[in-house]
Amino acid sequence: MKPFNKIFSALAVAVALSGAVYAADQGAQIGHHGGMHGHGQPSAATLGLTGDLATQWDAINTQEKALHKQEFSNGASVLNDAISALNSPNVDLAALAKQKDAREDDRRTQERALRDQRLALYKTMNATQQTAVRTLMLQKLTTMQDHVAQMQDRAAAHAAAKAQ
User: pLDDT tens across 72-87, in order?
Assistant: First the structure.
């Protein structure tokens, strides 16, 4: 294999693994969408929340949706900026990496703040409401586990086909 192909393959594997780790981390956090963009948290009504709990839960959902909408709308410009930078012969890869890290740190800080709000709210729920939250989390994690298993099966089949 050519050196460039080895580097590209290693980079692709690193990106895929980091995505899987990120998704698993997100699935383990109350207050996040289980690492599956676009699926969001259930409504307060779905969880059987009423009154102030419902208002607070749905307010956190609204903040979370706004954060993801902002991430999505910024994604194209971030990607275009990275492509432009990489097309430059004098690109500073370390600076590019630091910019990416800063964006990720900012996003994670905002997501953690939402998670912490949800955790505080969870503590105020009664046992039935807490069970509803945990049940939905388990359903999301089980679905994620199924997706990971499917990806692993596809990767193994691809590796076996490539080895022949």
Answer: 888 888 888 889 989 9
| Closest to 91 (Cα-Cα) out of 102, 103, 83 | 83
* pLDDT score for 143: 94
Tell me how far apart the alpha carbons of residues 84 and 89 are, in angstroms, rounded to a whole number: 10
- Do residues 34 and 148 lie in contact, with contact meaning Cβ atoms separated by under 8 Å? no
23 is a domain residue: no
Treating both helix axes as pointing N-terminal to C-terminal, what angle do 93-123 and 51-86 enclose, rounded to 10 degrees? 170
Q: What is the rounded (10 degree) CA torsion for 134, 136, 139, 143?
A: -120
- Rounded Cα gap, residues 41 and 67, in angstroms: 13
Structural domain range at position 88? 41-137
pLDDT digits (tens, 9 = 90+) for 116-147: 999 999 999 999 999 999 999 899 999 999 99
